[in-house]
Specification:
Elements lengths: L4 H9 L25 E5 L5 H12 L10 E3 L8 E5 L2 H11 L2 E3 L5 E3 L14 H4 L2 H13 L7 E2 L9 E2 L5 H7 L3 E6 L3 H11 L10 H8 L1 H16 L1 H9 L3 E2 L2 E2 L1 H32 L19 E4 L6 E4 L2 H44 L2 H6 L2 H28 L4 H31 L2 H34 L1 H9 L5 H4 L10 H17 L6 H22 L14 H23 L1 H9 L5 H24 L5 H21 L1
Antiparallel strand pairs: 1-3, 1-8, 2-3, 4-5, 6-7, 9-10, 11-12
Helix pairs in contact: 7-20, 8-9, 9-11, 9-20, 10-11, 10-20, 11-21, 11-23, 12-14, 12-15, 14-15, 15-19, 15-21, 16-20, 19-21, 21-23
């Protein structure tokens, strides 16, 4: 929830915009003396005034007449290239019900919001208290995205070819393609942002983050990432201390006792970490009111298309697309193409090893300076190949997911993320698995893992700490000083100079790779946890600094957990049991120990399989004993569902 200080920052921000130019709503319950600017629509430089007036009129029109039922402000004047958007109270409340957000009831319980029962909810008359800033901005964006042409029409002031709207075509997408809209982004509230920065990345203490303030300002999507990063960093402390205690090594690697302890601990740790995080996640989603989201009842995502008809679940007129056609596209086209790219990864790895062998043989024969330089060529060629292949694959994965035509935004993101995760996992871990289980060269595996970790940490520290510091202090500082000196500058328009936030995709990929190195191979290189812990201490502050200082504010949809990322971590935790069991078997010390005990040949493999099955069973048992949700959260969710059902029955 927003604090009382938020209203002061709103008053400061709205001084830039004349309150008289905001839309006057006819609904008496929505009349407000002061409107909060939430979202900025950046238009093209040569947009016609008639086009801008038409867009503002469309934004202001009621939903039953094909509009968005929002509030619009023309910015400086009608000829300007910005439109500032807000929303009236009734639009906020109806959207809160559509999203399935839970809010405090009069008895202080978190209950799924109902528009017809709105008077029984706390702070329902004050939108700055009832909804967080991130929720208000997402609702405005969601309403803009849901704009659809009621009939075929022309866009005023736009040439005929790109300016024709077909019936039920998404209006915002059409305006982007026609070059009318450049971008749509939420506005920063500078006073609140500065207060958050002082509590977040500017403080001297290492641990702890203002998660509720992050969720209020940036939304639950961002808050869940930083909560997970904080939880994961804390969880690295036990394996880091353990790794320092088992560092007795020789040329063959860790001692047999250290190797076994590290392997067993990694298996248990990964399971406990995932299960405890799921409990933490459910607790946060209840606290933030996202435990009972109902996305399937919301409108389709902007890119969704199909035959116009009545949705059997919502009863609304919208595009419909058969599920069997989507599954057919996934099974017959998407999966084979993903498999093709994974095959290309294997082909690249095979060519790398083959080229490396050829160059080494040539160098042994000639021993010249030229052949010494050639030794580096296979590695350079492999790096260039994997990077180019990765760029092509990411574009193909996005196009495939668009073509699959998912109705909900979460479904689209989950399918796209799954495609990229498969490729990323294969691209980063295939070499390590090849060295470990095909070559069975643990010293080489340890060296390769150490080089990858240290190299990644150095690159990460440069990109996460050094580069943001240089950009903010030296490159952006002159522009900030100019803005401070020019009191007439439009503070809202000044935000357009910031680049868009790239999202959390790369950040989650980085954490997933970290978790993979730690859970799959740390028994070979125990210092993995120490290196990751040191990196993540600065990672938290670096990521916070970047999102607050260097980018535009991102839109953030309400979410109840990390989505497909949580599943990815669970899969890695399950695979870690198999990996550690077989790495334990391949250790020369362990093999010698088995031979001394009279276990050899196929019996060693049989013992490894039995141990793996036992640990997998233990992992499942541990996961079963640790409930995903705390009892209080589980009871609250059941109460929310019962309360929602009672409201439906009473209204019918």
């Amino acid at each position: 929830m927003t604090s009382m200080g938020d209203k002061g920052s709103i008053q400061t921000q709205t001084k830039v915009l004349s309150q008289d130019s905001w839309t006057q709503v006819s609904c008496p319950c929505c009349v407000s003396k002061q409107v909060e600017p939430l979202v900025l629509i950046q238009l093209s430089d040569n947009v016609q005034p008639v086009t801008k007036r038409w867009l503002i009129s469309l934004i202001e029109t009621s939903k039953r007449h094909g509009g968005a039922a929002l509030l619009a402000h023309p910015g400086e004047d009608e000829c300007g290239d910005v439109v500032v958007v807000s929303a009236p109270r009734c639009t906020f409340l109806k959207a809160t019900e559509d999203l399935g957000l839970c809010k405090k009831y009069h008895n202080e319980d978190m209950v799924a919001f109902s528009y017809h029962d709105r008077d029984n909810f706390s702070n329902v008359d004050d939108m700055q208290e009832f909804l967080t800033l991130a929720e208000r901005q997402y609702i405005v964006k969601n309403e803009l995205d849901s704009l659809q042409a009621q009939k075929k029409q022309r866009i005023p002031g736009v040439p005929e070819a790109p300016g024709v709207l077909e019936a039920w075509e998404n209006i915002c997408q059409k305006l982007v393609r026609a070059g009318v809209i450049k971008d749509i982004f939420p506005l920063h509230d500078q006073q609140r942002l500065n207060d958050l920065g002082r509590r977040w990345y500017s403080k001297k203490q290492i641990w702890g983050q203002p998660l509720d303030a992050i969720q209020s300002y940036f939304g639950s999507t961002v808050a869940f990432y930083f909560s997970f990063l904080d939880f994961y960093t804390w969880a690295l402390i036990p394996p880091a201390f353990l790794s320092l205690g088992v560092m007795e090594e020789d040329d063959d690697g860790p001692s047999v006792s250290g190797h076994m302890v590290q392997a067993v601990f990694s298996m248990l740790w990964s399971t406990l970490f995932i299960e405890l995080w799921k409990r933490r996640s459910s607790s946060l989603s209840h606290r933030w009111g996202t435990l009972n989201l109902a996305e399937r009842f919301a409108g389709p995502r902007p890119g969704f298309h199909g035959t116009l008809g009545l949705n059997p679940e919502t009863g609304r007129l919208e595009p419909l697309f058969p599920e069997w056609q989507r599954q057919l596209r996934v099974g017959l086209v998407s999966l084979p193409l993903v498999g093709l790219f994974l095959g290309l990864v294997v082909l690249g790895m095979t060519c790398f090893y083959h080229g490396e062998a050829l160059v080494q043989g040539f160098h042994q024969d000639s021993g010249s300076l030229f052949s010494g330089v050639l030794l580096y060529m296979p590695s350079i060629a492999h790096i260039v190949y994997t990077n180019m292949l990765g760029n092509v694959y990411h574009a193909v994965a996005m196009q495939l997911t668009e073509w699959e035509n998912h109705r909900e935004e979460s479904s689209f993101q989950n399918h796209h993320t799954t495609k990229v995760l498969l490729f990323t996992f294969f691209n980063n871990f295939a070499v390590l698995f090849h060295i470990a289980f095909y070559k069975q060269d643990l010293p080489l595996l340890r060296k390769r893992l150490a080089s990858m970790l240290i190299g990644n940490q150095l690159v990460n520290q440069c990109t996460e700490v050094v580069v943001p510091f240089i950009v903010d202090r030296f490159l952006s500082a002159p522009h900030k000083k100019e803005q401070e000196d020019d009191l007439e500058m439009d503070k809202l328009r000044a935000q357009r100079s910031l680049p868009p936030y790239p999202g959390l995709f790369a950040e989650y990929i980085e954490l997933l790779l970290q978790f993979g190195y730690l859970s799959l191979f740390s028994c070979v290189y125990p210092l993995t946890a120490v290196l990751l812990l040191l990196n993540n201490i600065t990672e938290i502050r670096g990521d916070a600094y970047k999102i607050c200082k260097l980018f535009r504010k991102p839109f953030s949809a309400p979410v109840s957990n990390m989505g497909v990322w949580q599943t990815a971590f669970e899969v890695l935790g399950f695979v870690s049991v198999m990996s550690n069991c077989w790495l334990l078997l391949l250790s020369p010390r362990v093999q010698e120990f088995c031979l001394e005990g009279g276990i050899s040949g196929k019996n060693i493999i049989l013992v490894a399989i039995l141990v793996e099955v036992q640990y997998e069973g233990g992992e499942l048992g541990l996961a079963f004993m640790i409930q995903d949700k705390q009892d209080c959260v589980r009871i609250k969710r059941e109460q929310i569902e019962i309360h929602s059902l009672q409201k439906v029955l009473s209204s019918s």
